[in-house]
Design a protein that fits this description.
Length: 106
């Protein structure tokens, strides 16, 4: 049951933030650099960006270290999910993949 909760959170973590990103791009143009600039509009947003960046790096290290130990290669999918979508998708996706009932290998 918990495994499916992780998957539901990963899906929500992909869809919900992406809706805001798409709305922003539609209103402001499709410039990634303009979005990065907007993320640093003030100290509050810069703090949030750094908070998520550090969390993404920590998650990536965790995924790499555990994957090297377990050889469960499918778990590496959490890394592009984290950096292309966000920690809100990458972390629950990793927990879903990690809770594979078939054992440690994917």
């Amino acid at each position: 049951m918990l495994r499916w909760l992780w998957l539901a959170l990963a899906i929500w973590g992909a869809i919900h933030p992406m809706a805001y990103f798409i709305a922003w791009f539609q209103a402001n143009g499709w410039s990634l650099m303009a979005m990065v600039e907007a993320w640093h509009a003030n100290d509050a947003t810069s703090g949030l960006v750094w908070d998520l960046t550090i969390a993404a790096i920590a998650l990536t290290l965790w995924v790499l270290i555990e994957t090297a130990q377990t050889r469960a290669w499918a778990r590496l999918l959490a890394i592009p999910a984290t950096f292309c979508i966000g920690v809100s998708c990458g972390l629950p996706l990793y927990l879903f993949l990690r809770s594979n009932p078939g054992g440690s290998r994917d």
